[in-house]
Specification:
With 200 residues, the protein is mainly α. The protein has one domain: Orthogonal Bundle (Hypothetical protein af1432). Helix content is 65%, strand content 4%. The protein is built from twelve helices and two strands. α2 packs across α7. The longest helix has 20 residues. The protein is globular, with a radius of gyration of 18 Å. It starts with a helix and ends with a helix.
Length: 200
């Protein structure tokens, strides 16, 4: 084993810190990066699983959280409300495959784990996807809709993006729904009738 290859792999992973997301960190002075988000997601998944007393494979859940945005090193971050969102996982998967084949990588199931979190329907995958939507939403609320306002996001867009959470985590979905209504009342999200007027 060549430790130099391993350390080179670590430097390649470090590139995730350069991928800027659309959510502002608490306080709103700068955007978060994808590496920060991945750590935040791992901690939040751990805590939510304990809160709901879910029977999950915790190691796998945390692995999903850590690898879920790894493909953004090559593909970049795709905004949740972007039209390119549906096909972004193709470029991300190629990046994860590149990492999995790196001579310094010794995580044998790296690509398999990424595929499982991206395409799977396990409790771990569902929980991670729900919390992955929850965190940027929470940061938007904390920043008084700074990202939503700058991109003129409508309440219906946010509702549609989070609708899937209702089936598996109704308590989370209820909280989100209440906050969407509040954000709309505050003018952080465009009410759909206002959005229609703005585009006429």
């Amino acid at each position: 084993m060549d430790i130099h290859q391993v350390t080179n792999f670590f430097l390649e992973l470090d590139a995730l810190k350069h991928i800027q997301r659309r959510s502002y960190i608490t306080g709103g002075e700068r955007l978060e990066n994808s590496a920060e988000h991945s750590w935040h997601l791992a901690m939040a998944c751990w805590n939510i699983a304990a809160y709901f007393q879910l029977d999950v494979d915790m190691a796998k859940l945390l692995q999903y959280a850590l690898v879920h945005d790894l493909g953004e090193v090559d593909a970049g971050d795709t905004f949740l409300y972007s039209k390119e969102r549906k096909t972004s996982n193709e470029a991300e998967r190629l990046c994860v495959q590149r990492f999995s084949e790196h001579s310094g990588n010794h995580i044998q199931d790296l690509l398999t784990l990424w595929d499982e979190q991206e395409f799977g329907h396990s409790t771990e995958a569902k929980l991670m996807k729900a919390v992955d939507r929850l965190l940027p939403f929470l940061l938007n609320i904390a920043a008084e809709g700074k990202t939503w306002k700058s991109h003129q996001i409508r309440a219906s867009q946010v509702k549609n993006a989070h609708a899937f959470i209702a089936d598996d985590f109704p308590e989370l979905h209820q909280w989100l729904s209440e906050k969407i209504d509040y954000a709309t009342q505050q003018g952080w999200l465009l009410a759909d009738d206002a959005a229609e007027v703005a585009t006429e």
